[in-house]
Design goal:
Radius of gyration of chain B: 25 Å
CATH class of the largest domain in chain A: Mainly Alpha
CATH superfamily of the largest domain in chain B: Cytochrome C biogenesis protein
Largest sheet of chain A: 6 strands, antiparallel
Helix content of chain B: over 70%
CATH class of the largest domain in chain B: Mainly Alpha
Number of domains of chain A: 4
Helix content of chain A: 55-70%
Radius of gyration of chain A: 27 Å
Oligomer: heterotrimer
Chains: A alpha+beta (about 675), B mainly alpha (about 150), C alpha/beta (about 200)
CATH architecture of the largest domain in chain B: Orthogonal Bundle
Number of strands of chain A: 10
Largest interface: A-B, 57 and 50 residues
Distance between the termini of chain B: 19 Å
Strand content of chain A: 5-15%
CATH topology of the largest domain in chain A: Four Helix Bundle (Hemerythrin (Met), subunit A)
Number of helices of chain B: 5
Structural class of chain B: mainly alpha
Distance between the termini of chain A: 66 Å
Shape of chain B: elongated
Structural class of chain A: alpha+beta
Number of domains of chain B: 2
Shape of chain A: globular
Strand content of chain B: under 5%
Chain lengths: ~675, ~150, ~200
Amino acid sequence: MTRLLGLSACAVALALAVFGAAAAVMGARLRRPELVRSAIAAAYANFALLLVANLAMVYALVTRDFSISYVAQVGSRATPLFYTIISLWGALDGSILFWGLVLSGYTALAVRWSRAEAGAVLPYALAILLAVGSFFYLLLVGPANPFGRMFPVPVDGPGPNPLLQNHLLMAIHPPLLYLGYVGMTVPFAFATGALLAGGLDDRWIRLTRRWTLTAWGFLSLAIIAGMWWSYEVLGWGGYWAWDPVENASFMPWLTATAFLHSAMVEERRGLLRVWNVSLVVATFVLTILGTFLTRSGILSSVHAFTQGTIGFFFLAFIAVVLLFSLALVAGRSTELRGTGRLEGVVSRDTAFLLNNLLFTAFTFTVLLGTLFPLAAEAVRGVKVSVGAPFFNRMTIPLCAALLFLVGVGPALPWGRPERQLLRRKFVPPFLALGLVAGTLLALGVRAPFTVAAFAFAGFALTANLGEFADGTRARRRAHGEAPPRALVRLVRSNPRRYGGYLAHLGVLLIALGITASSSFRTERQATLRPGQTLAIAGHVLRFERLWARQEPQRFVVAADLTVLRGSTSLGRLDPRLNYYAASAEPVATPAVRSRARADLYVTLLAFEQDGSSATFHAYVQPLVIWIWLGGAVIAAGALLALSQRRERRSPGGERLPAAAQAEAR
Amino acid sequence: MSGAGAAARKARAARSRRRRVVRLALLALTGLISAPAAAQDTPPDLEARTRLVASQLRCPVCQGLSIQDSPSELAQEMKQVVRAQLAAGRTPDEVKAYFVARYGEWILLEPEPRGFNLAVYLLPVLALLAGLAVVGVVVRRWTRSGDVAQA
Amino acid sequence: MNWQRALVAASVAVPVLVLLRIGLELDPRAIPSPLPGRPAPGFALATLEDDVGGAVGREGAGAPASGRAPDTVRLSTLRGDVVVLNFWASWCLACRDEHEPLSATARAYADESVRFFGVLYNDTPDNARRWIRAMGGQSYPTLLDPDARTAIEYGLYGVPETFFIARDGRVAYKHVGPVTEALLVERIETLLVAPQPPGGP
């Protein structure tokens, strides 16, 4: 019954999506609004249908209905309710089902929120959204059908992948990732929809920018949550391993970030149109590519799901999307020609161009490194690895340059700035740069990129905070407001601009956290008997005892450790090893003590069965917690920027984004 | 006449300035790329050298982690082998070659910069340089079209 | 019309697509070993003793003619024999599947110059003994590799992996994953046909 309900919901969704896409285009071409209206109805209905299908699956999972193939694949009677529910997205078929839900939700929201603004573009954008939807619904009734019939019905299942039922973040990271990934479909639809509708006026950039910003906010949070998950679960003390699938989530983030900046050049100067469309298309294609890399089993990776025929479907889909977009851009190039010009070489415009260059080079490097093992095998027939040392070597210089630009961009005015203004804006950041670099060198830090990263971060931090300070001071002078109030009013007066600076601050926190924790990391490994201690970077760990516990879905072995400073106890840590029936080797759960200054991170590596000794690996890494906080600050910045409802018009009738107006003070 | 001469001089000066900028950029770029390698020159103590070599070898039973980072037993033992061989006076390259002979090139987390593998190192740099050139051309064209419009 | 730009974009996109298409045919988990064709790395490993002090598997047909397995097995003394080296562990699920084929084949080749050895990987002797007992015995000796040095020498990625060493002491094949009887027989027959090295016994 549940099986039939879920499957038919997906099948009807597929039919409606195909119909809706056709109806929307025909309605627009033949000027028959009732057809467009029916396509909109189809979009809403699709959301309801996908909701039904997803709820049916959750119901089947919770009631352990092993006659349904997906439940038989990931369910188990021993798995706790919480992990049973979130196993909805724990494996291939279910994740596509969830993807369908998110996509249909975005489609409905895009229609609801952007209908008035999109005008003539809407039917085409809707058609694209529904066409992308029909691809995923096709997967759901075909090669990734989660509602397959199991016969004979198994009595029990293996349960979800142990790594995926080990931490609360598994309930947060994947949905955020889908909200980010799938959300990139909307700007793609508005960009290509605008091209189909007959060219780009300035509406398209507003629509795509807003929707990209939304998805980008989710994607930023998702990436940070993924790092956090990997830190809390994988037990190697790190949070980013340049795993192919980490790269897959990172690449669309890079191109989307580039677009959020270059969109401003188009808004202000009417330049970079083709480039901006390309970035939107590239971002969407990279999300599908990322899904392909995870789903096809083409690269082995922590996150890779099992192999299947689904890879061919994705590959064909990517090819179609690329062909379609290329044809559109080439065919509409007259409409896409830039109209404006730049006023000066030393200006924020140039900074944005360099920013885009670096982000593009970054994306290219990550893409090349991720796919290079395939190329090497195809050309040389030899398996090679491209891992962290390569990516660090190639991208750390780019990161350093980008950090510098995070400071240069905000400090550099648009247009042709005066020398005096430049001096006023740049003297404090450069002072900070010199101060930080000098201090580090005096302290004996010699690693060039550590010094550069801190110095550039100090530079950028001063520049971005300086923007807040300058604005507040100006308001104070003009309106006589007290500083806190002036700051709030300032931010409210131009949320988009200050949201951007806030996001910069988040990025800087992350950069500081990553640089500090990777440059000044201490680690020690020791085998202890109960009562013995291990000293590491000012902390002392005393091994108290070993204990074990049988839980429904696993067997847990844990060590009690006391954290000491001198003879006072600061608290307890209990690193564990979890034994799951479905996994040969134990899954470690590290114990982490997070403080503003540094994290103490301990894993249990091995133990004697009689409890007489245990081997631990302990890490002390400074400022890790600021990485996670930085993610929250970025999201807050995105939210702030999105809170700007309407762009204002300048007195002359020329449409200017509010950011430009604030600049004109 | 003199105006044209001044313009030509200016253009020449601009050209040479540009050339200098490009040369500086190239220098900075190659410096940036090679700096991490230079920074990785053999550190004095055994533990640091072991860490360095171990972080360049891929753990066979993990997913993309180095044997330095992996908590698995095999990785721990491999790290012992690295330490023992370094202590016995082998160079980092010899230690890596030992593992390559047993596990294949796959064991190196960073492909050896030889032959076809050079592509993965050079293409990003070339792309960046090409992009820099494009940005330069574009900025010049967009700012100059303004001067023409003013004239 | 700007076909130039489209061309530039296509020049990035098409190779990526072709590459991915090729990639779908490749198996990311199949990593070729450089060992076949090279001399097998030597080892001297202690055998796993059973609870009463005898070597496990000494009643088995894989044991030498004397009926008593030596306490330490050296690969160098096995020159002239075909050696089947199977890395396993008690925690390894796939090792259960290949246990019966291995034991049966070892018994079948008891009278030929074929020697079977298990090598215990990342496991304790106690667990291994319990496992062998639960599986109904092992017809050949298992060797202990406490610090995994032999596993590393053989470039082990995981268990089970099986190495076939020819009479001349070179690694002939490496098999990843559980072996079947058919596979064992085919490889062993091929190696038995090959001529003995001149220096061999």
